Amino acid sequence: MRRISGETISSNLFLCLLDEEQLPYRWPTKYNILLAMRWLVHGCRSGDSLVFHFSGLGGQVEDEDGDEVDGQDQTICPLDWELNGEIRDDEINDVLVRPLVRDVTLHAVIDACHSGTMLDLPNVYKLKKNGQPEWKVHSPPNGAWKNTSGGMAILISGCADTQMSTDGIGDEHLPMGLLTYSFVTAAFFAQRKPTYAQLLATIKAIMLERNADSRVNCKLPAPMCSLVRKVVNFSGMQEPQLSSSERFDINREHFQL
Question: What top-level branch of life does the organism fall under (predicted)?
């Protein structure tokens, strides 16, 4: 989605790819997703606000160019990933992040497994054991450039690179991933504009509540319920992650698309 400064959102500024679409060019294939990413950032100029949202399968593959500390590239899996391959974080960074010029802001919300650093942004927000916030440097070991061309990129992801993400939240008519549900609830139903710290805290609280509900009200067969409980237990439960092209005070800066 694109919001141009001073203009309201119209249909030509919004693009959605869905498995259920009838027209092939609206399917979330690898080609179409990359084309949509390029459409989103093409011709961006000062004052533009861009939004990218992905909810689907995420994975990890062996890093081939030495830019990952853990030796793994994070990936999103398009509809045709088994035929045409996954989309690596390297490619997402190249297509979505590097073209951002000064005074352009991109918010990416990625609801997928292993999505913590899916944009390969150079700053990752963490909470220390004493509860104090800090920014961690996420620099590629090979010295590759992973930043913008002067703009601002912010990623809110559903879990750490090492974690799995929960799906199937919502009702039978509108199922969605846990981050998508929690983000929409926290961001758009807040009584006032939250800071990024407040947004993350609310998302995390909603995730805890929904995961607790899934443990109590699991309607899957017993073996599947057991697996779900292992995935969403409190000790290994997914937590929302924040990374950015620039460091900022998340307790002062207010979230705004």
Answer: Eukaryota
* Domain ranges across the chain: 2-244
Would you list the DSSP string of 66-135? S--TTSEEEEE--TTHHHH--EEHHHHIIIIITTPBTT-EEEEEEESTT-TTTT--SEEEEE-TTS-EEE
184: helix, strand or coil: helix
Pairing assessment for the beta strands 87-88 and 169-171 based on DSSP bridges: unpaired
The answer to whether domain 2-244 has CATH 3.90.330.10 is no
Both structure tokens of 205: 């609280």
For residue 233, is pLDDT > 80? no
Q: Residues 245, 153: contact at Cβ < 8 Å?
A: yes
Max CA separation in the chain (angstroms)? 54
pTM: 0.86
DSSP string computed for 34-83: HHHHHHHHTT--TT-EEEEEEES-EEEEE-SSS--TTSEEEEE--TTHHH
Phi and psi at 164, nearest 5°, equal -100, 155
Q: What angle do CA 65, 70, 74 make, to 5 degrees?
A: 70
- pLDDT tens readout for residues 48-101: 999 999 999 999 999 999 999 899 999 999 999 999 999 999 999 999 999 999
Determine the Cα–Cα distance for residues 48 and 102; give it in Å rounded to an integer: 10
